[in-house]
Amino acid sequence: MPTKVTMPKLGESVAEGTLGRWLKKEGDLVELDEPLVEVVTDKISTELPSPVSGRLVKILVQQDQTVKVGTEIAQIEEMAGASAAAPARARVPAAAPAANAPVSNAASASVPAAAPAARPANTNGQRQRISPLARRMAQEYQLDLERIPGTGEGGRVRKEDILAFIARRAAAPAAVAAPAPVPAAAPAAPAAPYIPGADEEVLPVSPIRRAIAEHMVRSKHTSPHATTMVEVDMTNIARWIERNKDEFKRREGYSITFVPFVMKATVEALKEVPTMNASWVNDQIILKRRIHLGVAVSTDAGLMVPVVHDADTLNITGLARAVSDLATRARSNKLTLQDMQGSTFTVNNPGVFGTIISVPIINQPHAGILSMDAVVKRPVVIEDNAIAIRSMMFMSLSFDHRINDGLGAARFLGIIKRRLESYGSEINVY
């Protein structure tokens, strides 16, 4: 009898996943723990390894399909003499620990704090079934889940139901005194596919690209974004890096960049302006007692935001080591679920690609996101009206205007600027 391959449970709150690219095709031979298919959830993308050695005889779920945990997605026929079935190992990340997690760290980099459990549905007296992603989307859009019919198995409310409800609400007349309950009906029909012209090409949208798109749209809809910027003189740091980069890499095994210096300054600013280390949840401001910095990393699959936990306990070298490790594992698809959870603020570095000024979108449910652009040499006016060539960098802060006003945002950026400009010619990074 063929061995069943099922959708794994990638975390305590993850009830479903989307299949990305199949790495094997029907008829291929596979080894134990050899990657079979990419699995994408709203939290992480990972490779699912084969539980046995044998031949992949049947693929039951195709690319881009979303199925619940435990669903059979493929069958493998074990070959004579092949090793016995074994549980999936390193490539399937373990669920992040939850029992000892502090209340202040309930939110993750891209997942707001879970809404209260749904009340019993009025239609059948049973507790409403809701996917974790649908629950988080409903909270971000401030929707009443009892008014949203579920089209999943057993009436489960899924992401598609939330999007369909939002589309229906947007199409409804603006002036309605008391909205009538939405009847339990099938969601609105999807829009007709776009037919490209002779000089156009339709590019396929990967599951990760789709997840990023949906999160960015939700973020702009959820938070009233405002942005402020400062210019920072990075000359002393730039000179120190130039003098010490070779010795640092020889000693530590990875390169030193401007990123850990900015992260260290950001940690200090978050301590002085705690409302930047916060989230807006159910009309309340929730301050986070611990500082977990999300760091945007560009990969071939798309942008990922792994987390440096307790960043305030690390020195500059420790931050550089953590960023190097996370970036390396992100680009080799070896991040765990825990690596992606729990961030309280995000630092973005588009400057590595040569950008001069950037306006980032907030990584929900954070209060803000800091963007550091390229360090560029240019003439500036210094003391006594002298003109000198300095290494300058623009930094921008996009912030949730529900939580902070312009004064707090300017103070936050000012602290980071002063911290970075306070370094002398000798810097202790240990």
Offer a few descriptive terms:
Dihydrolipoamide Transferase; globular; 19 strands; OB fold (Dihydrolipoamide Acetyltransferase, E2P); 3 domains; seven-stranded mixed β-sheet; Chloramphenicol Acetyltransferase; four-stranded antiparallel β-sheet
Topology:
Elements: E1 3-6, E2 16-22, E3 29-30, E4 35-40, E5 45-49, E6 54-59, E7 66-68, E8 72-78, H1 132-141, H2 159-171, H3 207-222, E9 225-233, H4 235-252, H5 259-272, E10 278-281, E11 284-287, E12 293-295, E13 297-299, E14 302-304, E15 307-308, H6 316-331, E16 345-348, E17 368-372, E18 376-381, E19 387-400, H7 406-421
Parallel strand pairs: 12-16, 16-17
Antiparallel strand pairs: 1-8, 2-4, 2-7, 3-6, 4-5, 6-8, 9-19, 10-11, 12-15, 13-14, 17-19, 18-19
Helix pairs in contact: 1-2, 5-6, 5-7
Question: Could you explain the architecture of this structure?
Answer:
It is a single chain. By secondary structure, the chain is an alpha+beta fold. The protein folds into three domains: 3-78, OB fold (Dihydrolipoamide Acetyltransferase, E2P) (Beta Barrel); 103-183, Irregular (Dihydrolipoamide Transferase), CATH 4.10.320; 224-421, Chloramphenicol acetyltransferase-like domain (Chloramphenicol Acetyltransferase), CATH 3.30.559. The chain contains seven helices and 19 strands. The protein has helices at residues 132-141, 159-171, 207-222, 235-252, 259-272, 316-331, 406-421; strands at residues 3-6, 16-22, 29-30, 35-40, 45-49, 54-59, 66-68, 72-78, 225-233, 278-281, 284-287, 293-295, 297-299, 302-304, 307-308, 345-348, 368-372, 376-381, 387-400. The strands form five sheets. Strands 9, 12, 15, 16, 17, 18 and 19 form a seven-stranded mixed beta sheet that branches. A four-stranded antiparallel beta sheet has the order 1-8-6-3, with no helix packed on it. Strands 5-4-2-7 form a four-stranded antiparallel beta sheet, with no helix packed on it. The protein is globular and about 80 Å long. Residues 82-127 and 173-178 have low confidence and may be disordered.
